[in-house]
Amino acid sequence: MRNLLVSLSAVAFATACAGGSSGPTFEYGPSSTPLRYQVSSKTESVIETPMGAQNANDTASVTVTLQIGELAGDGRQVTAIFEEFSSQITGVGSLEGGAMLGQEFSGILAHDGTIEFTETPSIPKKLSDYIDPAAFLSELLVPMPPPGSETVETWPVSQEYTEHTQMTMTTTMEGTARIVGDTVWNGQPAKLIEIRADYTLEGTGMPTGSPSELEMVLAGPGTIRAVWDAQRGVLLSATSHGNVTGTVSLVGMDITMAVTAESWTSIVLKN
Q1: Diameter over CA atoms, the chain
Q2: Pairing relation of β-strands 188-205 and 104-109?
Q3: What is the sign of the dihedral through the CA atoms of 37, 80, 142 and 13?
Q4: pTM to 2 decimals?
Q5: Per-residue confidence (pLDDT) for residue 89, from 0 to 100
Q6: In terms of Cα–Cα distance, which of 156, 168, 152 is closest to 198?
Q7: Rounded Cα gap, residues 18 and 235, in angstroms
Q8: Are 104 and 119 in contact (CB under 8 A)?
Q9: Within 10 A of 149 (CB to CB), how many other CB atoms are there?
């Protein structure tokens, strides 16, 4: 459930990296070559409008490379480049990365997996109206244990990030991560990590075609299952699933509509 796209008729949701060690590691480190990830997502949502239910089935397909660099303050330098970005949103149509593709997003990767960007390229307006690429990248990675707790089996996760599109939406994630076992991924040993969390999404904005400003509040549970290379410190793959329910209100019009959405996301290391 890791990314939120908002239009008047749809709510769409769209999950590293490093240094080796002699024992298991659960922290990001510098990557010798860029890590190329394929990300795909699907969201099914329903808004109960005064004229009846509006259903949406939205998808996204993204290829992104991440270059994790040296220590910088409390995190690590990171550069991200979209090689592909395509999305299909009900009522909007096809959205493509356009001139954004191949351009660098630069920032600092925190230990919890979030990225604070300091430099971003220009984003095509049709894309930026509905999708915030920097926010998409900021919440892409899986949270790791706090520094100094490498042997921990369970740890709390807490993240917050904000998307700026026609809607400004802040998502908070509160839950627990745990190591649930060992596996083999493409012939190499790996750890399985499971995260169970509660999500809250609050936002406001005025999408194209809306008769007034919208206020949206959604909440619900989500699960992330990740495959982690604990020798190199690299995210190999992750899947997420979430359900949220809530309301969207038209400010000043005394209209409140129920919203439900279910989302699926996968991320796979391709190199």
Answers
A1: 62
A2: unpaired
A3: negative
A4: 0.87
A5: 93
A6: 156
A7: 9
A8: yes
A9: 12
pLDDT at 146: 76
Beta strands of the chain (E only): which ranges? 4-7, 10-13, 35-49, 52-72, 75-89, 93-96, 104-109, 115-119, 154-164, 167-185, 188-205, 214-229, 234-250, 255-269
What would you report as the CA-atom Rg of the chain, rounded to the nearest whole angstrom?
19
* Token pair of 132 as six digits: 């915030």
Q: What pLDDT is stored for residue 8 in this prediction?
A: 32
CB 39 within 8 A of CB 13: no
> What six digits make up the tokens of 34?
């860029």
Tokens of 26: 């659960």
Tokens of 85: 């970005």
Regions of the chain short of the pLDDT cut 50: 1-22
Find where tokens 């290829």 sit.
Answer: 63
pLDDT in tens, 206-219: 988 888 999 999 99
Distances (CA, A) of 251 to 5, 246, 264: 20, 16, 30
